[in-house]
Design a protein that fits this description.
Length: 417
Amino acid sequence: MHNWAGNIEFEAARVHRPGTVEEARRIVAAAEQVKVLGSGHSFNRVADTSGDLLVLDGLPRGAEVSADRRTVTVSGSPRYAELARELHARGLALANLASLPHISVAGSCATGTHGSGNGLQGLAAAVTAMRLITADGELLDVSREKDVDRFAGSVVALGALGAVVGLTLAVEPAFEVAQWVYDDVPLDRIADRFDEVFGTAYSVSAFTDWGRDTASVWVKCRPDREGGAHPGARWLDGRLADGPRHPVPGLSPVHCTGQLGVPGPWHERLPHFRPDFTPSAGEELQSELLLPREAAAAAIAEMRALGPRIAPLLLTSEIRTVAADDLWLSPAYGRDSVAVHCTWRPVSDAVREAIALIERELLPLGGRPHWGKLFGLAPEAVGALYERGGDFRRLMTELDPRSAFRNDYVAAAFPRP
Ligand SMILES: Cc1cc2nc3c(=O)[nH]c(=O)nc-3n(C[C@H](O)[C@H](O)[C@H](O)COP(=O)(O)OP(=O)(O)OC[C@H]3O[C@@H](n4cnc5c(N)ncnc54)[C@H](O)[C@@H]3O)c2cc1C
């Protein structure tokens, strides 16, 4: 059994697909070592275990909207595509989504997954309450309202506190998004006018391979807030694309969400890829660093300097912005962030070397690696990047005193206090 990218073969001794929460509780209580696998889209061993691996896609699903229509409580293990369809049918929306809608909600929140938007936090910031099966097999409810401190440590938690079987998420009235792409925007403009570029719309992404001096900028506007007009046929010395684009230049945009300014529902525009296209496996690897937003221009300069060495290995690279949150292990904890993501050709050794080169330049600028992607930094050094890491270690000991959910990855990043 392997992850989506095929670069990780899971080492679990047993795989379980419980059909009820009761069954999941019994498996957890009896297991020496246990971990939940979400949709398996992480590129490292964050979801692995030497013991029992739980796949929760057989649990009964539910999505209950609160009376005031401000939250939805999901049970089971839905993926964003499924939840988004259901919410939209009820006239509701999530504030943001990642580039791909096929990832599980619980697994995405556990690693601090994010989309883009100066004012938009990572996806985990939408969580207001969660239900966990803890190592003793008991159910534990935590909520932002009732358990302020413990909650901030429980949402982005690398699956280390228990098995999440229920999540309550903030929702808002459904909205439309219109998406445009600008070709050939000079990287100089993006670096010099970073706040203007990324502040121009609800969600903005810039794609380049660092081997050229330009990027394509994807602009996702909310017509209800921003009027729905594009910034102009020429913008920042770039040109409005004359047809739909794929983030990897030259690839067919057939699986990409609607562009050319045609308004569409939030869940069919915010991700770059369409929900009705499900890639079963990927021929790519990914890495990403999140840095303080003020470091954006310096990070772009460092990536450009590395361009000749990394461009031949890159399928594409994406710059996004993420708003600060208060979740202890969120890579955007306490700081508005810029995210520098790389989608690599699947050639592991060369990619590892390229990631090390990037880390050498971007870690001193305050970079924190994405928990679900590849990084070269030793796990204990990654854990040390988080000022609330000590509190997280204490929380793990409190909720999982027998270290059942603490796999090698988590144990290395956050050793027992
Ligand atoms: C094609 C592709 C596109 C991507 N796009 C983005 C993007 O736009 N933005 C971004 O930030 N990241 C992105 N990622 C990374 C991805 O979002 C993360 O790796 C995320 O964790 C994947 O969710 P998953 O359910 O597949 O998690 P898994 O890899 O299955 O698990 C991740 C962690 O969550 C835990 N977990 C999962 N489910 C549960 C549960 N029910 N209870 C307790 N713990 C649980 C696991 O134990 C593990 O620790 C992308 C990855 C791919 C392959």
